[in-house]
Known about the structure:
Order of helices and strands: HHHHHH
Bound molecules: zinc ion
Strand content: under 5%
Largest sheet: none
Distance between the termini: 17 Å
Amino acid sequence: MSTNPHPDDQAHMSCTEVLERIYEYLDGELTAEIELQIRDHLACCRRCFPHFRHEQVFLRFLERRATIIKAPPALRRRIMQMLIDEEASRPLE
Ligand SMILES: [Zn+2]
C-alpha cells in the first residue's frame, strides 16, 4: 500500500497488517514487540490513526455493555470488522 510511511523498512508493518491486529492490540493480546510496532505505525500513519480512534471509542462502548463484552471474541471481531468496513468506505479527508 502506498500509504505505508516506511515503504523501505521491512521491520515496519503495512497498514493492512496493523488493521488486522488492531483487535488484539486493543485487547492487550499481543507481545510487547508487536504492540510497539503497531504503536509506531499508528503514531505516524494518517490513514490508520482514524481507525484506531474509532476502535478505541467502540471498545469503551463495549466495556459498558456487559452483555456484549461477554460475547465470544469471534462475534466481537465481526462487529468491529463491520465498523471498520463502514469507516473504510468513507472518503479520506
Ligand atoms: Zn497505516
